[in-house]
Design goal:
The chain is of the alpha/beta class. The chain has one domain. The protein has two helices and three strands. A three-stranded parallel sheet has the order 2-1-3. Strand 1, helix 1 and strand 2 form a beta-alpha-beta unit. The radius of gyration is 11 Å and the shape is flat. The N and C termini lie far apart (28 Å).
């Protein structure tokens, strides 16, 4: 189990990651790259799950 691990999920449909939630991960979700970068600057996360084709700010351009 991944107790107390937080993932930042930047996807158009974050519900697809329910298996990770079932294994104890906590999620912060964003549906755009801009929103994901805003969350990342204000929250502490252990890992990021990033969809490559997001629309306005694709995964290829989201840089930390």
């Amino acid at each position: 189990m991944a107790t107390n691990s937080t993932l930042l999920c930047i996807r158009r449909d974050p519900a697809q990651l329910s298996l990770l939630r079932e294994h104890g991960y906590r999620f912060l979700t964003a549906s755009t790259g801009y929103e994901g970068l805003r969350l990342l600057s204000s929250q502490s996360v252990d890992a990021i799950v990033l969809e490559y084709q997001l629309g306005l700010l694709d995964g290829a351009f989201v840089r930390v």
